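> agent: user asked for a holo structure of the chain below bound to magnesium ion. Plan: (1) validate sequence alphabet, (2) canonicalize SMILES, (3) run complex prediction with ligand conditioning, (4) return tokens. Step 1... ok. Step 2... ok. Step 3 dispatched.
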Amino acid sequence: MNFLLIDDSAIIRKMVKIALKKVFKGEILEAGDGLEALNVLTMNPVDLIICDINMPNMDGMEFLSRVKETEDFKDIPVIMLSTEQGEEDIKEAMKRGAAAYLKKPVKPDVLIKTVYEVLKKSY
Ligand SMILES: [Mg+2]
């Protein structure tokens, strides 16, 4: 199982990585913004993406749309993980094709449970 973690905060990426590593085998790739993440995606097979919203260069909403509009990437489930807690943000993310929406700070067990649920639905 290969993951791609996208967040401009290295600390958040590290926390998510530690939680995933306890449960899953495989590669955990990282990117600091949406643009970097698109580059990582073109070069690596990824099974699931966990993505922040507020980031420089390309934010998570834009990234999500790009992924869902790209034939090679559109079936990869994307879990959004953000401090944005508004109903509008959640609705917008789901409309753009997010598989789930988690609010920061997320508890490791909630994160893992959501990853399992999304994987079960997607594969
Ligand atoms: Mg951010």
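> agent: step 4 complete. Summary for user: Residues 7-9, 52, 54-55 surround magnesium ion (CB under 6 Å). The longest helix spans residues 108-122.
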